[in-house]
């Protein structure tokens, strides 16, 4: 296999893969883009997991409420579960907006750190 070189970039080094991946060279911008994409994917995955957990807890709370049979303690427990699920989802969503707002106020792109990594790298 022939190495693949990035255009107009300083190569960081060779990465040796197995089988069809072969050997290729990674440039600085490609590496930074990869790191940024990984961070975005992790945040997205965690948000999806929080949404699925919310749905799960909401359904469990609803079923608990329906099967309480008039027992005040069970109804109260189910209401707490539903309330906590809603609060948890709200915290996740608000946290992303707050981080983005703080970044905007400070003039930083906190959720997209690629440019800052390149600046630190070139220093």
Please tell me about this protein's structure.
The chain is mostly helical and 123 residues long. The protein has a domain at 42-122. The chain has three helices and two strands. It has helices at residues 28-66, 72-106, 114-122; strands at 11-16, 23-27. Strand 1 (11-16) and strand 2 form a beta hairpin. Helix 1 (28-66) runs antiparallel to helix 2 (72-106) and helix 1 packs antiparallel against helix 3. It is elongated and about 65 Å long. It starts with 10 loop residues before the first strand and ends with a helix.
Overall 3D form: elongated
Low-pLDDT runs: none
SS content category: mainly alpha
Largest sheet: 2 strands, antiparallel
What oligomerization state is this entry in?
A: single chain
Strand content is 5-15%
How many H/I helices? Answer: 3
Radius of gyration: 23 Å
- Taking all residues together, what is the mean pLDDT? 80
Strand order of the largest sheet: 1-2
Helix/strand order, N-terminal first: EEHHH
Number of strands: 2
The percent of residues in helical segments reads 55-70%
Distance between the termini: 34 Å
Briefly, what is this?
This protein has 123 residues and is mainly alpha-helical. The protein has helices at 28-66, 72-106, 114-122; strands at 11-16, 23-27.
